[in-house]
Amino acid sequence: MIRIAELKDNIALRMLYERSIYHELPELVSWAMREIPERILIVDEQTEIAASVYTMTCGYGNLWASYLAFQNESAAKNLIDHLLSVRNEKSRNLYILCPMGYMDIRIHLIARGFIPECVREIDGLVYIVESYNGSFRPRCESSKSSKPLSVTVREGKDDDQKVIASLLHDSLPRDFPTIEDSARCIKKWLGEMREYTIVVEHNNLPIGVLLISPEIHPVSDKKTAMICYIAVEKRFRNRGVGKTLIEGACDVLREAGKRSMEVDVSVHNVPARIFYTKLGFYPFWISRNYMPYDDGIFYRIDF
């Protein structure tokens, strides 16, 4: 059951926050409990408080939610879905300040159509400000993972050119509309950046590839690399190949003295956004009209 907080909830609410990522009852929540308890929403499960969040409508009719705390993730997700229904009735936009450590909650927000706005550090915690205006309602079902493959991660070889060119062309037709385009790309990487050509092979054949730019341009950043292309053969997807490619890239970059890796993703590419979030990436910048067909989100992982 979702309800408004009451003064009698004070002790239980304090215990909930002390066991949460905040480790104590936030001052704003404490103040609201004394002065305006109706701003605090609570989820009850079996006579206990399972989740809570502070809410406020401000800034031209926008609904804000912060200091989300919970005992279990299902209660937190129910609270988010309730906020979405409230927003649909009364507010223009819904903003949620989501701690970066709430990985499963961030995935839930992505699947509901939220877009990251910015990253903020408040009282030692890093938050991602997520927004929802109703214009983006993805139909995204989580792909069921099959049994992981037995694979090998290695550096690309000249003998891989034909197979990888075909893999890039088939997986990324917008980037490589012809096989000649992908062939030129892999030839360049193997000739100039072989160590940044990460290959996953199964039964001695490449089934996945990740191509990295060792520096970020137009701003030169010697400590950050960029994922340029990642492709996995269709019949081997959802079997851990993409994760293995990312982990292999992190190992290579760490040995090269890099500190982080970035990737840009279309706002509407929900499966990719969930994929990177699960692996520990976080959004740090959204760029309007960055891509030919869409806005782009830049994700980063720190080593």
Topology, pairings included?
Layout: E1 2-4, H1 10-18, H2 27-35, E2 40-45, E3 48-58, E4 62-70, H3 73-90, E5 94-99, H4 103-112, E6 115-122, E7 125-132, E8 152-155, H5 161-171, H6 179-192, E9 197-202, E10 205-213, E11 224-232, H7 241-255, E12 260-266, H8 270-278, E13 282-287, E14 296-302
Parallel strand pairs: 4-5, 11-12
Antiparallel strand pairs: 1-2, 2-3, 3-4, 5-7, 6-7, 8-9, 9-10, 10-11, 12-14, 13-14
Helix pairs in contact: 3-4, 4-8, 5-6
Characterization of the model:
The chain has 303 residues and is an alpha+beta fold. It folds into 2 domains: 2-132, Aminopeptidase; 152-258, Gcn5-related N-acetyltransferase (GNAT) (Aminopeptidase, 3-Layer(aba) Sandwich), CATH 3.40.630. It has 8 helices and 14 strands. The protein has helices spanning 10-18, 27-35, 73-90, 103-112, 161-171, 179-192, 241-255, 270-278; strands at 2-4, 40-45, 48-58, 62-70, 94-99, 115-122, 125-132, 152-155, 197-202, 205-213, 224-232, 260-266, 282-287, 296-302. Strands 1-2-3-4-5-7-6 form a 7-stranded mixed beta sheet, with helices on both faces. A 7-stranded mixed beta sheet has the order 8-9-10-11-12-14-13. Helix 7 links the parallel strand 11 and strand 12 (260-266). Helix 3 packs parallel to helix 4 (103-112) and helix 4 packs antiparallel against helix 8 (270-278). The protein is elongated and about 70 Å long. The model has no long low-confidence stretch (mean pLDDT 94).
